[in-house]
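Journal club prep — side note

Before the paper discussion, L.F. wants everyone to see what a predicted structure for a comparable chain looks like in token form. Sequence:
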Amino acid sequence: MCRKRSSAQQSTRFVTSRGISGATGVLARPAGRRPGEDARLSTSNDPMNQETNQRIVGAAPVGAQDRDSAAQAVREMFTSIAPRYDLLNHVLSFNIDRLWWWRTARKFDAILKRPNARVLDLCCGTGDMTFALRRRAGSQTQQILGADFSHAMLQRAAAKATEKEKGSCATLRWVEADALRLPFPDGYFDLVTSAFGFRNLADYDAGLREIARVLRPGGECGILDFGEPGGLLGHAYRIYFKKVLPAIGTVLSGVRGPYAYLPASVERFPAPDEMLGRMRQAGFHQAFWTPYTFGVAGLYRGVKSV
């Protein structure tokens, strides 16, 4: 089935799902299995690590019965809010999200300034983290890719890249792909980031293993996501996050599901100590967490074992 491409699609570079080709074309869906898809959790003699690994933890939208149905529900939710996604993010975060992206991109300056570095922004949505990485890299890093499994989100990212095309964002490329089945070879990237998207994966351990697979030894990952601050601030934040934010999001988007799902997904996400343990089990010998804005958000940073 052929469709006339939009101007954004015509002027934006895409990669195919079969590998990194650099060819211009319409967004491609991932096909087939890739190396590492059947990789299993690493084992440990530590009973706590074994117990952690035996529990499959991931996104669980209402009505989802298994990993595939959870992934489908998440895709449908984000497709439904894609047209107003950026506006809602800025309004609901009071524009602090822009600061979080900038701080995260800055953490990886050493990699971004390398002329031949390969960078993947996973679960990129409409591309804001991808654009932040591009701005920090300047003219140095030539290969920065944004990947997401929502076609509607990537269309928005492509349109935004076209608007910024006079600058360095013209070199960005986009691929439609499942974060649990990435169409890239082992050890390909120097850096993999994910901003507010990793939490929506149906299996966090599988997602971490897949990130580790596509990273070169010594490569780094950065996962930026929401947290749950403590104390009086945490109490006020939870009232806003669970009551006010879903109401505003529903009114502005016209869709209830995604903004009722959001606080539940944050509550389900592993606490920092557990998440760091999962990262180490997936192959990151160094793993750190840096809280942003009193713990409302935070950056998980890992270095793949050599």
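L.F.'s comment for the group: The longest strand covers residues 215-226. Keep this in mind when we get to the figures.
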